[in-house]
Amino acid sequence: MERLLKFLFDYRAFFTFLFLELASVWLLVENNQYQSTTYFNTSNQIAASIISTSQNIREYFSLRDINSDLAIENSRLRKKLSQQDQILLARELSLFGDSTIINRFDFISAKVVNNSTRYYKNFITINKGRDDGLQAGMAAISQRGAVGKVKSVSEHYAVLISLLNIDEQVSSVIKRTGHFGTVQWDGTDTRFIDLKYIPRHVELKVGDTIVTSGYNSVFPEGIVIGTISSFKLNEEAQFHSIKVALSQDFGKLSFVEVVRSNLKIEKDSLEQKIIGDPK
Amino acid sequence: MIRGGILQIVLFFVYLILQVVLLKNLVLFNTSFCFLYVAFILLLPVEMSNLLLMLIAFLLGISVDIFYNSLGLHTIALVLLAYLRNYWLATITPQGGYDIGTPPTLAANGLQWFLVYTLPLVFVHHLVLFFVEASGFTLFWYTMLKAVSSLLFTMAVMLLLQYLSLDRRR
User: Fold this and answer.
1) Which positions 2-21 of A are in contact with B (Cβ < 8 Å)?
2) CA nearest neighbour of A178 among A147, A209, A200
3) CATH fold of A45-166+252-262, please?
4) Which ipTM did the prediction report?
5) CB of A50 less than 8 A from some CB of B
6) Are A151 and A139 a contacting pair, CB within 8 Å?
7) Torsion over CA of A183, A186, A187 and A188, rounded to 10 degrees?
8) Nearest residue, CB atoms, A13 vs list B51, B71, B142
């Protein structure tokens, strides 16, 4: 016993080292699990307020860009609204009688207070949280396309997993052909994302639009992700390897809309009865 | 001793705020990062014990991680750096040894010694940081490029600050 204690004491530096390293590896692994509710990130009140102050200062330098983006968004929405009115007028409101289907998704607008694109695992912090009805697992989109999923929320802030995160996968569809696959970032170029699992018989064209499929009920269907910029098919490969040019410039993100899917619970519980837990 | 302790605590927060408010936004060519906070651990007094060093490194690492949304990542790299530091200091002791109570700075030991001291330790820190972040060796050369270019950036800023404080003392 005495010897053991002496041994432990002699190598105390090494054992402390081992203990601290194991503790940090545990934190790393724990934090990487999807949709954790940990507070040790930028949704933490103190961290978020420091970061939003720094973001406020930085924003003065990009006001011009943000303004023009918002103006474009405004005009686009106004156009869409008038089109919608025309259609409703023509069909006399007869097509969608069920109001739950019409109000399937709620949109909550939020400002980006922190955003990274330069790491392998990128996250975005926004200034809306549990108080505004956000929950882990919701989707975030912007005017130009899909942005990411909510990872964790605090009272007034939330952290999103960006599409530019090597762990993030989103079910998606080639709009022209209707084949579905999965998009996942490879960690290098922030302008491109990989589209996987498109079988080799599918005939692709450069410029085909990739949109979300809506199969996992996180993203509404039809949200643009990007367009195919190049593809190749290796001799023995089962699937195409496709590069998709993202429609969203993640370096210039300033506002996002978080999507609350009101029928998600109903759809998930129905599916769970048949195929078990979706994870 | 107590004055020195208080100064170090203030410095801890200075390095932390500097890192997460300013340097976090300062990335060159999308590959070159500046992790100046390692300088805080490197410049603590020579005779500080290994245990204390690692505990401080753990605290600093976690604080930086909270702001980088990467809990555990910077902590792993920084605790390793703190563990290796004293062994490396003992290996490269200059002739006549270290002066008691002084931090291992450029002013005290000269440029050549300072480079030999900091360069390998910072490189190990960056290697661990980027390869753990990439979770594997699949993007080996790209990750390596990130590590080396960040090493240059961090070292440049650290040397600059060393020369600035050198001038003030004269």
Assistant:
1) 12-13, 16-17, 20-21
2) A209
3) Thrombin, subunit H (2.40.10)
4) 0.71
5) yes
6) no
7) -120
8) B51
CB-based contact, A118 to chain B, within 8 Å:
yes
CB pairs under 8 A between A and B: 103
Give how many domains chain B has, as a whole number: 1
Where are the domains positioned within chain A?
45-166+252-262, 169-249
Range of the domain at B137: 2-169
Closest CA to A27 of A40, A45, A15: A40
Task: Choose which CATH entry (3.40.640.10, 3.40.50.2300, 2.40.10.350, 3.30.420.10) describes domain A169-249.
Answer: 2.40.10.350
CB of A175 closer than 8 Å to CB of A208: yes
Same fold, A45-166+252-262 and A169-249: yes
- In order along its 279 residues, chain A shows pLDDT tens digits of 778 888 777 778 888 888 888 888 887 777 766 555 555 666 666 777 777 777 777 777 777 777 777 777 776 777 677 677 667 666 655 555 555 555 567 788 888 888 888 888 888 998 888 888 888 888 888 878 888 888 888 888 889 889 888 888 888 888 888 888 899 998 888 889 998 888 888 888 888 889 888 777 678 778 888 999 988 888 788 888 889 999 888 888 888 888 887 777 777 777 777 766 544
Whole-model pTM above 0.80? no
Name the nearest CA neighbour of A248 among A272, A271, A225, A215. Answer: A225
